[in-house]
Structure to design on (556 residues):
């Protein structure tokens, strides 16, 4: 069982990141995996209805972050140190994105995860990303 | 000399990416290099005044994109295929960011560049990134 | 069905890359996936028996390359353009490594895959990597 | 001034990594920068005389590692946690490679550097790479 439930993750986001918490919905969490949906709004789009690169990056980042918090508890200070992202297909126009993330390493100071992102309703991956988080020492 | 001047790059951005063009100012361009400033607004910040990761990513992406356009002309369809980014220091609170980018490869189908980003007034790098762009065939 | 069988992949490697073909054994291929074993020898090790970083990189690179060839046929000229690799755990001393790779994109000019690498007999991932290959135009 | 001179770096390599120390020559070090030459031998080549990808990776890795050691002293346990590498041009056949590396961050637990690699006698970059090293706590 994870240390934080979906409800706890949503409550944490609303408190710690009020500007963006409405953009993301955790759909499933557990067993070092998490699925997060990005609720696509006009502001995430580029001309033609394509979801912007920074929005896709934001989803990858949030998915690993929440997957990590689910395991270690609410450490708002965990910070991204590296992200490598491949943009592979054009997302479907004006459609939510879904991130399937997994934690591959959960160390004392570093955590590593990777994520596949696809448009809701189409399993072909739009992007893949791997991210490293630095975990602050317990005080 | 580049194919596009600073004025031409600004005009292109305003036309092709009206939602975000106001966020970026090209300060210098030429010789496979470009300097782009991100005009930080409330919406780019996280609690505590830190510039968000997706905003830093957006700056890296735009800087290489505009550096590429300056060389090859306005190809709005050039697309990012890969980005690797390291977040190294906390940006100064509520301060503009400056990206110094250079093109390392300008091939027929792929372009590669890297970029160092720092807070205005402090040369210590906040982030570094390398990006690959796919260049569509001429029609 | 793939265009190349395990036997065909081994024959191709022995012909095209005689210096290293003995290091690798394809164990399974199909459905955009491949499993490749690295037969660890003294020359792959560092003091203490750890498999070296360049050897782990070589395995990741070969696994995606062979997975790609299996799909498109023997294009010896496909070249790696990008690799992002995370080293997550120390490999078991003097033990073969196993790479589980999958192709995520198989485009006209670019292919993208990722790979998890573990020591034989221990499923914990030692490394993960994602790679992009550039596919030369058909002549 | 750095904590280790070129001579000290060479002596450290010969002691800690006897299998590969002969492959590398430090040409210059200081001011968070280092230049390392890879002495290309038959075993680094692929058919046609091209330097292999794993060899280029090895040079990038060693250059940042030695640049880091020069600053912090001989910590043989510093380990690579991430590398992102772009292969941009074919190296000149059977020619030494030169890496120009710089440290961008030298933190308490993580160091980040990047490196440009070119064939000796031709300044066009063959590859660029960025690497993160984890620094073990002092005992």
């Amino acid at each position: 069982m994870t240390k934080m439930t979906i409800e706890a993750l949503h409550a944490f986001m609303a408190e710690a990141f009020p500007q963006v918490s409405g953009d993301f919905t955790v759909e499933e969490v557990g067993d070092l995996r998490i699925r997060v949906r990005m609720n696509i709004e006009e502001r995430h789009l580029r001309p033609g209805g394509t979801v912007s690169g920074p929005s896709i990056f934001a989803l990858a980042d949030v998915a690993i972050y929440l997957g990590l918090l689910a395991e270690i508890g609410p450490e708002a200070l965990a910070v991204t140190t590296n992200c490598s992202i491949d943009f592979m297909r054009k997302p479907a126009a004006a459609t939510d994105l879904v991130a399937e993330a997994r934690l591959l390493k959960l160390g004392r100071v570093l955590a590593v995860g990777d994520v596949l992102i696809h448009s809701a309703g189409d399993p072909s991956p739009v992007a893949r990303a791997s991210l490293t988080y630095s975990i602050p020492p317990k005080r």
Remarks:
- The first helix of chain C runs from residue 6 to 16.
- The interface with chain B takes residues 81-82, 84, 109-110, 132, 134 of chain C (CB under 8 Å).
- The radius of gyration of chain C is 14 Å.
